[in-house]
Amino acid sequence: MTAAEGTLSRGLAARPLFIATIFLGSFLLFLIQPMLGRMALPTLGGAPAVWNVAMLFYQAMLLAGYVYAHAISRMAQRRQTIVHLAVFAVAALTLPISLAELGGRETLPPMLWLLALLGASIGPVFFVVAAQAPLMQSWYARVDDPAAADPYFLYAASNAGSLLALLAYPFAVEPYLRLKEQAWLWSGGFVVLALLVAFCARRPARDPVPAAEAAPPATWHERAVWTVLAAVPSGLLLSTTTHLTTDIVAVPLLWVVPLALYLVTFIVAFSMGGAIFVKQAKMAAPILLLLLGGYTFLAQGVFALLMALTNLVLLFVVALALHGHLAERRPPPSQLTDYYLWISLGGVIGGFFSAIVAPLVFDWVYEHPILLVCAAALIPAKPLTKRIGALWKGRRGLILDIALPLVSLVASWWVHTELILGDRAETAAPALGIIALAAVLSIGRRLTFAACFGALMLALGGWQAIAISRIELARERSFFGIYTIKADGARLIRQLEHGTTLHGVQSLIPDLQSEPQSYYAKGSGVAEAFAALPKISGRFAKVGYVGLGAGSLSCFAHPGQGWTAFEIDPVVVRIAKDERLFTYISRCTPDLRIVMGDARLSLAKEPRHTYDLLAIDAFTSDAIPMHLMTEEAFKVYAGALKPDGVLMVHISNRHIDLQPVIAAIANDMGWTARVRDHTPYDPDLPGIDYSRSIWVALTPTETRMQDLMYAGGAGPAGWEMLRERPDLQPWTDDFASIIPVLKQQ
What we know:
Layout: H1 3-44, H2 50-72, H3 77-92, H4 110-130, H5 132-143, H6 153-173, H7 179-201, H8 220-248, H9 256-270, H10 275-291, H11 304-328, H12 336-361, H13 367-378, H14 386-390, H15 395-421, H16 425-441, H17 446-470, E1 475-478, E2 481-488, E3 493-498, E4 501-507, H18 525-537, E5 542-546, E6 562-567, H19 570-577, H20 584-588, E7 593-596, H21 599-605, E8 611-616, H22 631-640, E9 641-650, H23 659-669, E10 672-678, E11 693-699, H24 702-712
Helix pairs in contact: 1-4, 1-5, 1-6, 1-7, 2-4, 2-12, 3-4, 3-7, 6-9, 8-11, 8-12, 8-13, 9-11, 10-11, 13-17, 15-16, 15-17, 16-17, 18-24
């Protein structure tokens, strides 16, 4: 056997070991992310932006790991091994993983506090595991002959591990293991990873290639290209997730799907044989951007599931085209760690834009169409035909580069005025056709195509979205979501929407403005409870409710009662108290006490046995704040209630059946529970907007429950026993899963 054959043989023998090491490292990285999120829920609350900020933290730590890997990759192999295993040993001192005790929750901005919490909790172990993918590939390039084996295929193994962990946690780990068991399982995996790294270090290895023989370093222009090609898909991943879950359809676990597709694009782009799929993605991406991305501004609430599917298809194809182009530009193995460092930096930049900058700057998910336009400017497509390509030769091409975007922009405004504002499709169609033709002709001229594509989105709802943003008080955005206030002149009502979920309605007719609407209509479970309250608790009853909304519950108040609202979002408080928008609070409880912060933490600080009635109404755009539905949370509620108090829980939800969850907790606590599923009579009159609602009442004794049912007016016939699931354990901070209670759609 020749020396070259021996080198290749050693490389092939080492391949399974390095694949296993990289696979396990990435698996652990993506397993710890949702695991820590579950640990942090009782502290963080159910904010929808938590996931995006957490993703930014993971990307930043990944960058730190890649910088570290790049820094030590130039050392001799023995020194690298000593340094890296020493870092492993230091990180292992923080095991088993757990949530850090961190103050400043009330003083720091939510984003900064969350980043600090994640860093203090898993920073060391995440850092060392994050370095695995580039460092192990660098080691493998020294074991194997770079001319005979391309180490970049290991990047596909890395993303495969990430994908498997992403899918395994909600379906195979969370439903069967408690958090403590999950933490020990992960810690065991960390130890196994350290052992695998030690075995990888024992493989015969060459020292780094001497500088005189190594490939020249990448230019700063090339590094900038790597960064941008990674940044746009990263930002698009988060913007797609936000767009789907706040403006199209709020389905539990939907955030898993965009991230899974994003990881698959990396697997395909860097796998052997992936080039053919990348080529097809580059051809399809411009057309799909026009056909699917053009309707981005019109997606809210219209054909929700179909629009969600089209957004996912668009994310996959665009990310595959860009990641494929990124893979095509990969440098020789000697520059591998430098390459991954700049890819990681791009991921951080994209994540920072979507998670931090956009919520502060925009009042809607404008980052999504912006990133789609950026993608259109980056995809290296070719003209659809040679004849079209010939149009762009010479001076004629420069003229078209200027003329087509200008014509498209003017036509987009015409479409807006005729179609969106005037509902005159017949006069808007020619202008829309001009934009489409300009965009199709400009495929292959990336900046020109991006401009025409942007004009198409402006035509189809973009101008209207911008107009709404310019209207005072029409829309606001915070860390906790996007709020839209809509006045329906025909029905004479004003609505507060949080994403896709209605969070409050008030009549515009003066005589009806003190009558609660939507989920709080006469005959609803909460209306019955408030009607019974003076009879069972006296005229000076104390009332608390979680989730301010538009302040609708305030108008159930009676003179002499003391009312307290618990709300986590200052923007909601500002909306509810602004008399130009909603007047429930000013009319009915002008002295309402409002406690800011996460309700569970705030209630735990309240004097014990304060409230006669406590209402929990804190769902966020159909998402479940799981930390408010655990046994520990219900014990907090019980501590805040008087010994004979009443707990009301709003569980109206399109996707999750919470009756068995509450039934299991009530049985475990020894409480009595009933549910009222109320569909009110809708008279279809102006100023009235009633909605079906499902409210659960819980009391310490059956006697108190009977008092509530008879005093409220509906009687026992209006309340039913909760559906129970004998196999369902009560949710706790340590163990909970929504998989068993998902409704069949």
